[in-house]
């Protein structure tokens, strides 16, 4: 059974990629939220749980099996080297889970994989085409500070500094959706939706090797 066309969608923090994915989902397109699934797999995937405990100790989890987020925030997420180790454990398991999910969508013409670190994790290589959602950094900062009231401007800038530069994302994108609060997003999504539905076979045939 042939797989659907696989489209990745990414963008820097505050770019609005989740909003764009909601529009695609409203059009009936299956969307895999890699960041959401990663959080779930960290407590439900036995292999991943064992790897995390081996690397970071039993304190990474509460006795009830839930993540000890306070411990992880202090010991892992605030340390770039440890965070890279965590990502090296999580991303491959997300890849396995994604493959299973794609196999469960045999009737879809195309599917979307939404991930903040699509390029950084290397998972873009699994996909046929990539969309980057883009917005100016000052617009993104304003959105994030309104959405996440616990974050500061310094924290936002720190996150941005750890993500792939916007210019590099854009240079590697197959398609770009501008979400700058000026250019309407819906027509851009509808244009791509029409393109993918009408040329899915060709796009798969000419997919990256």
Question: Mind sketching the topology for me?
Answer:
Layout: E1 5-10, H1 17-26, E2 31-33, H2 34-44, H3 46-56, H4 69-75, H5 80-103, E3 110-114, E4 129-134, H6 137-147, H7 153-162, H8 166-172, E5 175-178, H9 185-205
Parallel strand pairs: 1-3, 1-4, 2-3, 4-5
Helix pairs in contact: 2-3, 2-5, 3-5
Topology, number of strands: 5
- Spatial sequence of strands, sheet with the most strands: 2-3-1-4-5
How many strands, which pairing sense, and closed or not: the largest β-sheet?
5 strands, parallel
Shape: globular
CATH architecture of the largest domain: 3-Layer(aba) Sandwich
Uncertain residue segments: none
Based on the structure, what is the oligomeric state of the protein chains?
A: single chain
The secondary structure category is alpha/beta
Helix content: 40-55%
Superfamily (CATH H level) name of the largest domain: P-loop containing nucleotide triphosphate hydrolases
The whole-number mean of residue pLDDT values reads 93
Share of β-strand residues: 5-15%
CATH topology of the largest domain: Rossmann fold
Q: What is the C-level CATH assignment of the largest domain?
A: Alpha Beta
Q: How would you describe this structure in keywords?
A:
209 residues, alpha/beta, Rossmann fold, five-stranded parallel β-sheet, 5 strands, 11% strand
């Amino acid at each position: 059974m042939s797989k659907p066309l696989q489209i990745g969608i990414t963008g820097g923090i505050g770019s609005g990629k989740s909003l764009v994915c909601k529009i695609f989902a409203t059009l009936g397109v299956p969307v895999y939220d890699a960041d959401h699934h990663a959080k779930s797999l960290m407590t439900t995937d036995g292999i991943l749980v064992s790897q995390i405990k081996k690397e970071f100790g039993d304190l990474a989890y509460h006795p009830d099996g839930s993540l000890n987020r306070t411990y992880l925030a202090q010991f892992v997420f605030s340390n770039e080297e440890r965070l890279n180790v965590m990502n090296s454990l999580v991303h491959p398991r997300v890849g396995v889970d994604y493959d299973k999910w794609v196999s469960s969508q045999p009737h879809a013409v195309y599917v979307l994989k939404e991930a903040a670190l699509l390029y950084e994790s290397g998972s873009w290589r699994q996909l046929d085409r990539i969309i980057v959602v883009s917005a100016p950094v000052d617009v993104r900062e304003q959105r994030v500070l309104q959405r996440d009231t616990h974050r500061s401007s310094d924290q936002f800038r720190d996150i941005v500094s750890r993500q792939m530069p916007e210019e590099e994302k854009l240079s590697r994108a197959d398609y770009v959706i501008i979400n700058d609060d000026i250019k309407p997003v819906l027509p851009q999504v509808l244009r791509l939706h029409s393109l993918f539905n009408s040329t899915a076979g060709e796009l798969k045939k000419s997919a990256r090797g």
